[in-house]
């Protein structure tokens, strides 16, 4: 199969000299040496890095440093890093940096949904606000080990709330502020939270979301299900921001429902709170937070991360993958409601003492130049976004980008889905003007931080490949029988050893944890993704195992077919799914979204079939193509192929749709389904 990658494999992009010269890791030789040490002497390697963080009780040695069982046949799966240590992530993120003299440094530039709205907060000020909110939580009776639900927009108070939880040892469970009441209720009860922190509402582009009303409804559902949520802290956010232009008359944003004995205004309870609050020293293996996965492949899993390992790993991956330098302005566009936001908006940047942008808005409001405008405004040097955002912006053409200078940019990174080479090149050439390394980071909610990623000063990149493992990560590619493949190969992507940031359990369901990640291939952590290793040892993540298909005995990944389709300049996005076929076993059913203004015609269909034939081979030519005005995506922006598969097969049972961003597109696609044999 590898011949199909031939042309791609040979395209190399060495790190630019300007980045390399000052980088933490300057060459592949240096990377290999560090990597070798991280595998052969994990304790020595990680302990040295841990010296950059403060531990009240030290990381420990031997089994106290690292102790694990990855083999489901040998007993329960368990992973412990630094189990006798004690520390606090809030202390490391704030107090420790202030003590080091960073008090006046800006921690966040906040950029609102509307370009008029902006603010900034220093490390010292953030520390004081966090202490105040910690005192508030304590006063409300929140104790170490209690679970706190947070459903806030991308505002500084979200960071304040999460750090306040960790300061006092409470466990945060953050739910993205765009869920329906039902989905929110399910997440609150699953996590057993008794208190929720939210806001009156938020503008997302031109859309107003009445968060408090959704939360009220969700709490009622929780109470009915026997889970009393008896406290709700509400941030008054809407009156302090500029409304999006098209607020209709009579759309009174100041109205929120109120329950006297349950609801509290954030500003009321913060008024008299003290800006000093002692730190609770917490055991290294105590729970830090739980967070639900995106739900691309099924019902979301409540992933549990613990303190010391996650802290060390988020610090290390932020520093090395983005080659963090003191004068950087970092911007990760992900919502904190997803793992990318946890690790690379809040924890990684703050632990490193970095200045970041916290963005409340969307890429296309007020116009599709917003990202580039924000980059110029704050002189962003490291930018981290998703392939889905890149593809959306590509649709609007280069002119939107070229209106802005972008001269501050040094590194461009991506996460979330395989990035197709077409989007990679656009990101590299149009956005980065060929001077910024592209850092394609592969990881999962479960992995806590990057597990396969280039290092910008060291790695020669190839468009579409996440390249090599991060320190401490040992990937392998397995065949159907669980045998490790060597050399050029394709199969299941697994990991052989734990790294500090790996999840510890599925909250309240250790059985599901073992079943989902460790049973299929005993002795390995199974990612659920497929991958290919090329002749130079580069790893190419090809997509979900569930999304692989077998056409007349040829194993194909959806990513490969989609890449070929979107190479056509008329195509903005495409999704390929497997469909049963009486002779071939499976065939391809593809959904195609043309670029704005391009009509979907028979001629285009023919062109696309020819393209796939030429790029991949005759066996991969799609049997069915359907016009899709847009594609069903998770709220974090990933294509939901499991739903498209059901549409193609006209199966009305769509499974868990709680993370589906827009139901209406599903109905439309169902209606216009192409007749199949
Ligand atoms: P669920 O587990 O509920 O189905 P999810 O897997 O989409 O949801 P996340 O943890 O947010 O939830 O996403 C991790 C997945 O995203 C990976 O398993 C992989 O499929 C995909 N992914 C992330 N980054 C990359 C990347 N750089 N290249 C390829 N795929 C990526
Ligand atoms: Mg997943």
TrEMBL record:
Residues 560-638 form the AMP-binding enzyme C-terminal domain. Residues 31-93 form the Acetyl-coenzyme A synthetase N-terminal domain. GO terms for molecular function: acetate-CoA ligase activity; AMP binding; ATP binding. Pfam families: ACAS_N, AMP-binding, AMP-binding_C. Keywords: ATP-binding, Ligase, Nucleotide-binding. It catalyses: acetate + ATP + CoA = acetyl-CoA + AMP + diphosphate. Residues 103-505 form the AMP-dependent synthetase/ligase domain. GO terms for biological process: acetyl-CoA biosynthetic process from acetate. CDD domains: ACS. Its EC number is 6.2.1.1. It is an enzyme of class 6 (ligase). Belongs to the ATP-dependent AMP-binding enzyme family. This is Acetyl-coenzyme A synthetase. The lineage of its organism: Eukaryota, Metazoa, Ecdysozoa, Arthropoda, Crustacea.
